[in-house]
Amino acid sequence: MLTQTEQKTYQFIKKFIAQHQHAPTTAEIAAGIGIQSRGVVHRYLKALVQSGYIRLLPNRHRNIVLNSLERAKDSIPLLGYIAAGRPIEAIQQTEDVNFKEIFTGPEQFALQVKGDSMIEEGIHDGDLVICRRSESARNGEIVVALIDAQEATLKRVQFNAEKNLITLIPANPNYQPVSYPSERLQIQGIYIGLIRKA
After folding, report:
1. Beta bridge pairs of residue 155
2. Shared-domain flag, residues 50 and 84
3. What pLDDT is recorded for position 72?
4. Per-residue confidence (pLDDT) for residue 198, from 0 to 100
5. Catalytic residue, candidates 15, 46, 75, 117
6. Span 49-72, pLDDT tens digits
7. Which pLDDT tens digit goes with each residue over 79-110?
8. CATH number at residue 17
9. Does residue 102 sit in the same domain as residue 167?
């Protein structure tokens, strides 16, 4: 539950993004809600993160991203397509998948599968996979992996810290595991389930 000032901060951020198409700085938030201290703004932002209303992107000047909690009770965002064959360009789209109370949460998102490299895990072309946002994973987990900051794929992951390699392992004998230097690959989420549309 947000305090009145936290709610005021959230409403200002939403209005600012709608008007300017980018997030406000802490100085702009402070001015917008009528306070002097940017430290207090940081405290409000932390509360909004903990409540699931926003995310803060690292190493960005305007780093606030709304989580659209108004829709989260009934839906989660469908962000685009994810390759289960050859990696494809990561293209973001704005559409919602309505699951009511199934799979919902502010850190979860859906991707539609393109390809058959994960069929032995029961993940088929056209399925909607539900993932939890995460920048890390454990060995053996199925993850959303971003390669060279542009191609996304869904694979089981294996880390080799000694060789500084990350291997993406398909679940189809027609595809071979591929290893990448760790600096080329970023974990973006962990697979938690799927929906198959009839």
Report:
1. 143
2. no
3. 44
4. 59
5. 117
6. 888 889 888 887 888 988 865 444
7. 677 777 777 665 555 555 555 544 556 678 88
8. 1.10.10.10
9. yes
pLDDT in tens, 134-187: 999 999 999 999 999 889 999 999 999 999 999 999 999 999 999 999 999 999
Q: Which residue, of 67, 84, 99, is where some domain finishes?
A: 67
pLDDT at 131 over 80: yes
User: What's the number of domains the chain is made of?
Assistant: 2
Last residue of one domain, picked from the residues 34, 49, 67:
67
Residue among 155, 163, 179, 182 flagged as catalytic = 155
Annotated catalytic residue 136: no
CATH of the domain at 123: 2.10.109.10
Active site residue 8: no
Q: What is the 3-state secondary structure (H, E, C) of the chain?
A: CCCHHHHHHHHHHHHHHHHHCCCCCHHHHHHHHCCCCHHHHHHHHHHHHHCCCEEECCCCCCCEEECCHHHHCCEEEEEEEEECCCCEECCCCCEEEECCCCCCCCCEEEEEEECCCCHHHCCCCCCEEEEEECCCCCCCCEEEEEECCCEEEEEEEEEECCCCEEEEECCCCCCCCEEEEHHHEEEEEEEEEEECCC
Q: For residue 98, give its domain range.
A: 72-195
